[in-house]
Structure formats: structure tokens, C-alpha cells
Fold these 2 entries.
Entry 1:
Amino acid sequence: MSDFTVRPARADDAPAILILHRKVAALPGGLARQPEEVTADYVAHAMAAASDGGVNLVAVDADGVVCGELHVERMKVGIFTHVLTDLTVAVDPDWQGRGVGSALFRALFEAARALTPPAIRIELWTGATNLGAQRLYERLGFKIEGRMVGRGRYPDGRVEDDIVMGLLLD
Ligand SMILES: CC(C)(COP(=O)(O)OP(=O)(O)OC[C@H]1O[C@@H](n2cnc3c(N)ncnc32)[C@H](O)[C@@H]1OP(=O)(O)O)[C@@H](O)C(=O)NCCC(=O)NCCS
């Protein structure tokens, strides 16, 4: 049985979040960033953006080690301020498929409703070949809203479309 908990991220989680994202980025077909693009600066900016009206959550194992992270930021233009966008989620490969991602999203939905003002739309992009992630997001209530053709270009020259997914909270 998996033993983890989800809590809001703290500033002192930054080094662990960096390690986690580097580990996940090293695996093909997951995060958009290559491992060398996962820097302390990237993590600092992501955490700062999320802390400015968005949501930043971590999953920690029984020893308090970060095994998953999710961050999303709030849009700033008036008519879009109910929207959380640019979502990134990463689960340690040793923990994938054990409910961590689902738990992070459930906590996100709760946190989004509790924000002031509440966020009622959440949107994300995922690689067209990342069918596992799309399956999870659809199960959580996200709908496919569009396709951004040729958006991703990998170092090996491979081009991949991005799938736009969105969810409206009740
Ligand atoms: C996608 C991801 C966040 C899901 O978190 P998780 O804790 O593995 O998910 P859960 O255990 O809650 O749910 C399991 C579902 O997640 C999906 N999933 C599981 N492992 C996955 C993986 N390695 N890559 C993509 N999706 C995966 C599947 O839909 C799975 O359901 P299934 O067993 O019916 O196929 C996580 O696997 C991950 O970090 N993958 C690599 C990075 C990535 O793809 N990030 C998302 C970019 S948009």
C-alpha cells in the first residue's frame, strides 16, 4: 500500500523539487523540459509564480521525501483571473502508477475552490504521445479542447503536437 501525503509546497522544498524534476525530465515522453533545462532558477520562478495566486503542492513519502509535485499559476488579466494555467506535474518514477498524481490533482481542485477569488477553470497542455497522462486527466474530468500542431521540437528533431485540456470546477 502506498504511504504518502499531499501538502502545500514550502520554500525549503525547492532543492527536493529540483531533484525530482531532473529525475522525471531524464525519462523520455514526460516533462517538456530536458534535464539541463531544469535549473534552480526554473524551480524558483515556478514556485514564485504559483505563490502569486496559484497553487503549489508536493506529495511526500513516509520519511518526508518529496515524491511528487504540482504547480500551476493564476492568469492575471481581469477576465481570466478565474483560470489556473501552465500546469506542471511530476511524480518520482518509483512512485508512478501508485495514486500520487491523482491525489495531487484532487488536492489541487480543493485548493482552487478555496482561493480568493476561487479558480474555476484549470488548463494544461500535454504531449500528444503522452497517452498515459491524457488518460489520467480525462479520468479526473479534463476534456480535450484542442491540438497545437508541431508545438514541440525535440533535440533529435522529432516534432510533437500538444493536446490542450481544460476542466471547469463545479
Ligand atoms: C503523469 C503522472 C503525473 C501521473 O502520476 P501517477 O502518480 O503516476 O498517476 P496515478 O498513479 O495517480 O494514476 C495512474 C494513471 O496515471 C497514468 N500514468 C501512470 N504512469 C504514467 C507515466 N509514467 N507516464 C504518464 N502517465 C502515467 C495512467 O493513466 C495511469 O492510469 P492506468 O494505470 O489506468 O494507465 C506521472 O506518471 C508522471 O510524472 N509521469 C512523467 C511526467 C509526465 O508525464 N508529466 C505530465 C506531463 S503533462
Note: Residues 4-168 form a domain with the Aminopeptidase fold (CATH 3.40.630.30).
Entry 2:
Amino acid sequence: MSNTGKQANPGQDATTKVLEPFREIIDRFGLLLKRQAEESAALAPVDLGGLVIGEEAFLGGEPLVSFVDAEVFAPVFKQSASGVWPVLGVIFPALAEGLATLTAKADKDRTWVSLCLRAVVHGDAEALEQAAAKAAVSPDFLLMSLRVAYGPCIASVRPALTALAPVELWRRAHCPVCGADPDIALLENHPEPSEFLVSKGGELWHHCPVCTHRWRFMRLVCAGCGNQDHETLTRLALPDSPREYIYACESCKQYLPCLDLVERFDAVDFDLAALNSVHLDAAAQSRGYTPISPAPWTAMGFAETQAKAS
Ligand SMILES: [Zn+2]
Ligand SMILES: [Zn+2]
């Protein structure tokens, strides 16, 4: 290790070292996330018409996208898929053939695209089954591929949607915009002049892996099942990484990685935070926990494979 004198973040070297076995996954998926962000910025605007959000239903837990007709995403979805699916196929050559099937299907079968949009936008399980059967692919593979293409679409309309409802009041585990489960929790300082007492341990914020939205959540509650019994909520820290945790729940056996940023002052890319915490996934999965949000790299068993190999 080179002697670089003073370090902005003393934990950085240790983190770099623990990530070493996962470098290839991080590099590959980093390419995909970068491509998705570029695609999102380049998409044509989505016409939401005179969309009205039912505030009571929203505050009752219905995400903003549930008020949107899935069809409005059709043009941008096709544009996004043609930009990100080829990259996904390069990252996973084994998926290239399946992705080519989906691309061909999307090009010539408009009703199939509608089914896919209902599946990915509104979580319609029946539509997913039907669309998978029509394309002769597995529902899991189809959903993962759809999410990769849909992410840039919903991310691009996120500002328009959040302007229509009091999103700052949302305190649920899932994303207020697209309804996805969080991929990482972050402990942050949000000092506000109006808040006389600032919580010393920081506020807990969730990050959405699909639309990249961030929202506040309650501490000491399982984001997977709502369990609040502190006896069955576990916080695991890894050696050498005292500011990185795994929040695990003994009731539902699910986990969420967490980064404590309260004493960190360097810039953190929230959209890369979960990917850069893949070592936490490996540690949690080797202890028998399953992720609340199966990221592509954990869903494909990469973290597990690496954990066994190392
Ligand atoms: Zn979201
Ligand atoms: Zn739980």
C-alpha cells in the first residue's frame, strides 16, 4: 500500500481491500449502471397528461406509478431496451441469446410489450407469466431484463411524479415512486434549522435500485416484514469495516446492507452504493439471509459464489 499521507477517509483502504474479490462484478455492473444513467438522461419526455395522484391512497402506501397508465412508457421503454439490453448481453454473454429473443419480440409484437409494461410498471404477476410464456423465457429472466430497461424510464419521470404528491411524508419501506424494495440503507446527517434536536445517530434513508429515488425510513424496523422486536433484529458489522452494516431480521431472514455516512464527508454516489457493498451481500448470504431487494448481481448468485470461493 502506498504511503499517501493524510487520508480523507481512513476506512477507504480497508474497504478497497475487502472489495478486491468482487472487482470484476463491480466493474461489469458498474458499466450497466452507467449506461442506464446515460439512457435515462437521453430519453424523450414521457407525457403524463393531466395525471392526478389520489393523496389518501398514496399516503396509504400506493406508489406514485400505480396512478400512471403503464402504456405511457411504451415509446421510452423500447428506446431504453435497445440501449441497455445489448450492454447486459455483453456483461453476461450467457444472456445474449435470450435478450436477442426479447428484442425481436418487442420489435414486432405490440401487445406483448403491453403485457411486459403491466408486469414491470404495476407488478402484474399474471402479465409476467403470460409474457414469459409467449417469449419462451423464464419469468425471472424476463423480469430482470424488463427492470434493467424500465429503470431509466421511471428515473426520467421521477421529478415530474414526485412534484404531484407530498413524498416527504412517506415513511414506508418500499419506494414511493415505483414501489420497488430498497437495495441499501444509509445513515445520514440532515441538520435542518427547524429541527432543534438533531438525532445524533443520523437519519435512515432508503435508496431505490430501480428509479434511484431516496426516502426516509424508520430506524429499528425490518424493511422486509415490518418486525420491530429488537430481540430479533440483528446488526452485523464486518471486521475492518466498522461503518458498514448488515441489518438482518431473524423473523423473515431477510437483510438490507447499510452504510453509516454520519462521519463521512467525501462524496458518495448513492446509485453505486449497493454495488460497492457486494461484500456485505456475500457475508449476509453466507449466514443464510436473503436480500430484501435481489439486485442482479445477488440474484444471479454472484455474491454467494464469491463468498464460497474466498
Ligand atoms: Zn423507485
Ligand atoms: Zn423481517
Note: Confidence is low (pLDDT under 50) at residues 1-8, 303-310.
